[in-house]
Specification:
This protein is an alpha+beta fold and about 160 residues long. Helix content is about 20%, strand content about 35%. It has helices at about 5-20, 80-90, 130-135, and strands at about 25, 30-40, 45, 55, 60-65, 65-70, 75-80, 95-100, 105-110, 140-150, 150-155. The protein has a four-stranded antiparallel beta sheet with strand order 3-9-7-6. The longest helix has 16 residues, at about 5-20. It is globular and about 55 Å long. The mean pLDDT is about 90.
Length: about 160
Amino acid sequence: QKMGLNARRVAVRRLLAEELKLKIHVDTTPKPVYTLSVAKNGPKLKTYMEGGQEKLPNGRVLNGKDMTWVGPIAYFQDGSMGNLVELLSAHLDRQVLNQTGLTGSYDFSLPLPHGTGISPNADLTEDTPPVAEALSELGLKLEAGKAEVDGIVVDHIERPAED
């Protein structure tokens, strides 16, 4: 409990290396990614105001830093571009890199598929635009490309000894 996060990480790595003979390395081979940047006409994001509330279509009210779904739409209150990129990376078929340069907090919504591995150009439902199209309405653009992204490769691991 008294160990900091980095100290706990080191302890876990040491335990895995000793008990499972785990050997890993970092791979920086260029991988397919999406880059999120500001569109030519600039961002169209509503700046978060302290104490602001947002009433959602289902009647729920967002207070403070919050994010939730109503159907296929994700609603962000006091959300950063870092939050958005993290969520996009978890749901789309590639990692998303933040190249917006935006550092503020915003209130916004966009369609976001439940699940993972979805193309940003896929139709989610008949009434819901694709993610890439919704991002463009927020003054953002998502482009495919390649970039060096750190990934961990497991070189060796053994089953633990049975007790």
